[in-house]
TrEMBL record:
The lineage of its organism: Eukaryota, Viridiplantae, Streptophyta, Embryophyta, Tracheophyta. It comes from Stylosanthes scabra. PANTHER family: O-METHYLTRANSFERASE (PTHR11746). InterPro entries: COMT-like, COMT_C, COMT_dimerisation, SAM-dependent_MTases_sf, WH-like_DNA-bd_sf, WH_DNA-bd_sf. The keyword Nucleotide-binding does not apply. Residues 142-265 form the O-methyltransferase C-terminal domain. The keyword Transferase applies. This is Uncharacterized protein. Residues 19-116 form the O-methyltransferase dimerisation domain. Keywords: Methyltransferase, S-adenosyl-L-methionine, Transferase.
Length: 285
């Protein structure tokens, strides 16, 4: 070969390529488990769930049940679930037979964060929004995006920016806001241990604060704090402040309101960066 790599190295390179090629599979299986509500099923079961119970809760066509143990094992390998041994209680009628140990699927800390309906820090809206087919479809167009003048891959893929898409499509906007809000609920957990961070501060601004989910959590803990949620005018237009919590519209790349502390939790920074030339990004450092 002209590059000079030995055949042995090229075989290793092929294995590495396959690894990169299929590295989207953990994400897709994460979406599969979230869409089917498997973390919630396990949680409601109240203990690790055997395959038989899981299949009965999922109620899939019989032609598809073979998928479940394979995907579950893959997700166990990736840390989303754990396998434990339990006494056989799979509900099948086995009269007077000795109880047998079976494998069962248990929640890990990661999948516990995907349980829906029982706590206020479920991350499943985040999974659904970030792995939405429109977003995944857009990332497939990165090659086209760099060849064109489009500001973002979403624009290359869909013809409009993500924000224009979201503002004209209530379903996308609400999925996005839910994703951001559930991520913000994690602040609740952090605040329990880190209250000192806000002590001694009289005012704060949450830049790109969305619908104020993070702000409300902090405001509840520190009602004396003058808290501004700063976001695009179209985002905050219909939002009502309360007490010391207020909403201000504007463009963070032009200016932001004065405050003692600035919060910047903008998960889609890459999207934003794709829309902003590097010399304008110094504000973000
Ligand atoms: C990923 S969301 C984060 C929302 C919130 N910080 C949270 O964590 O839940 C990014 C936010 O930045 C806002 N945003 C985008 N461009 C902005 C700009 N130029 N000025 C102010 N806010 C902007 C968006 O409207 C959106 O609400």
């Amino acid at each position: 070969m002209s590059s000079g790599h030995s055949y042995g190295k090229l075989f290793e390179g092929q294995a590495h390529l396959y690894k990169l090629l299929y590295s989207f599979l953990p994400s897709m299986c994460l979406k599969w488990a979230t869409d089917l509500g498997i973390p919630t099923i396990i949680h409601k079961h109240g203990k690790p769930i055997t395959l038989a119970y899981l299949l009965s809760a999922l109620n899939l066509p019989s032609s598809k049940t073979w998928v479940v143990p394979r995907f579950m094992r893959f997700l166990v390998h990736n840390g989303l679930f754990a396998i434990v041994r339990v006494q056989d209680d799979d509900g099948e009628e086995e009269e007077e037979e000795e109880e047998e140990e079976k494998e069962a699927y248990a929640l890990t800390p990661a999948s516990e964060l995907l349980v829906e309906g029982t706590n206020n820090h479920s991350m499943s809206p985040n999974i659904k929004s970030n792995l939405h087919e429109l977003m995944i479809g857009a990332t497939l167009r990165m090659g086209d995006w760099v060849r064109r003048e489009d500001r973002s891959v979403v624009e290359t893929s869909l013809g409009v920016s993500f924000w224009d898409l979201a503002h004209s499509n209530p379903e996308i906007m609400s999925a996005f806001n839910e994703a951001m809000a559930c991520d913000s609920q994690m602040v609740n957990l952090a605040l329990k241990d880190c209250k000192s961070v806000f002590e001694g501060i009289e005012s704060a601004v949450d830049v790109g604060g969305g619908n104020g989910a993070t702000a409300k959590i902090i405001y509840e803990a520190f009602p004396e704090l003058k808290f501004i949620v700063f976001d695009l005018p179209s985002v905050v237009a219909d939002l009502q402040g309360i007490g010391n919590l207020s909403y201000v519209g504007g463009d963070m790349f032009q200016s932001i309101p004065q405050a003692d502390a600035v919060l910047l939790k903008v998960q889609h920074l890459s999207e934003k960066l794709c829309q902003t030339k590097p010399e304008n990004n110094t504000n973000l450092s």
